[in-house]
Amino acid sequence: MLEKKIATRQSYGEALASLGEKRKDIVVLDADLSSATKTNLFAEKFPERFFDIGIAEQDMLGTAAGFATCGKIPFASTFAVFAAGRAYDQIRNSICYPNLNVKICATHYGVNIGEDGATHQMLEDIGMMRALPNMTVLCPSDDTQTKWMIEEICNRKGPAYVRLARMETPVIYDTNQTFQIGKAVQIGEGTDATIIATGVTVAEAIKAKEQLAKEGILVRVLDMYSLKPVDKEAIIRCAKETKRIITVEDHQIAGGLGSIVCEVLAEEYPCKVERMGINDCFGKSGKPEELMHAFGIDAEAIYQKIKE
Amino acid sequence: MKIENPEELKKIANKIRIHIIDQVYEAQSGHPGGSLSCADIMTVLYFNQMNIHEKEPEAPLRDRFVLSKGHCSPALYGTLVERGFLEEEQLKTFRKIDGNLQGHPDKNKVPGVDMTTGSLGQGLSVANGMALNSKLEHDGYRVYCLLGDGEIEEGQVWEAAMTAHKYKLDNLCAIVDYNHLQIDGSIETVKALDNLEGKWKSFGFHVLTVDGHDIQSLIDAFTTAKLTKEKPTVIIAKTVKGKGVSFMENKAGWHGKAPNKEEYEKAIKELEGGMEKC
User: A278: closest CA among A255, A308, A303, A307?
Assistant: First the structure.
């Protein structure tokens, strides 16, 4: 893990601006948040293929669906709460049911957005989006993975929901690392516990793993960037090989990563799962790091959980 | 195919009305009222206005049609049969478990259906996306979107109207099937659309109000829309819900109800009588 930090929303904007050169079939839509979602990086280079629909997320996603029926690959961005939440019915009926090739890249999920508080902290989107047939659900953990992912979803037909963070997080992977939709990356071989994380909690889990290693407690981290389809085989293998399974996510523990892991293990290899995440409450204002700590999803909380 | 003769178009509209009644009766389910009210609009679009190809339903440069009021699928399916996209036999499968003709249109199941619709208020946004693509690629195709009058109570319609204005989508033509009735009763009592023309005008649309059952007036309005530059057009088509079947006309109760055998026979008799008059 490197010292360099970058938010996955920034990596997204950079990836789009770069992909726009070779993929003339990409159009980008935003709902008055392009400087925050970083689609402005694409807009500056390709203004004729950028559409600011204004503060009208339902209309934006419908417009994206229209472009997709004509063979374009629309990337539609806004904050996660306004995409998955406010425009849920448009995503369901105008995108997923007709199986249209719309890429919903939603930024600002979870309590890690910080000061804006509960109304803007989307904590239910994994659950909502993965329940939709045809939808692929992804949550990258770092810059390298995000850049791979944006290109990958371009080459994969069908709707996709990508959850991108506001908070800057360390670069975890070097550019040689390979990824695959439907696969997890396992970091470390420890057998005392597996920490399954996604998005911003992956770096926290790695920090906890390094701290624990100093005390002779050897854990592994499973980076679950592909939430649907999910790497069942990796979950089952880790449950068999390690003493504990702990999930940690910046999302409600109901419906999200914790639920996904429970569903897989309940059917395939019943065992205890310990879920860390937001437990049936809303977020609040504060600094990102303070909130990650207050809601028990930072490295310190993971460390303490393992030490229990 | 372009039919200019209004009398001939009237006959087609009447056949579409018969298909509507047949489908809803056979399925014992569906929405006859709003389907009957838009049959003339559908006829003019599919037989006089739109550049479409029954042998190549996905032709990239074809004009597009979005039935935003998706519950009026019997009108769309009936039109597609008359226009050669579907076999008449298929209408018997409407709303049936083994059929492709879903209660609300599914673009992946029926050739000639450009967009899956059903959840009201969403079609105009989709039509905007298609029209924007036509502009971006200089493809020149036009996009038509049929809205229900009750449907425009949905806020997304007005979000989409602002977008169509922003991008000066003169290749977009929305049509409001203004039949004055919705499920709970008259539009005026449920949520009045006072000054409907003024609403669309203030959103930057070129507004044309016509008798939605007068074939020549519809042709003229669509032709005017084509010649209108720099702004989208909306045609407010004044219609009668249940048009063509006397006991269904202007009755909210026939929004989503199937006729029984006696009612079915009476409806068909009236429509076939209408055929002779055409």
Answer: A255
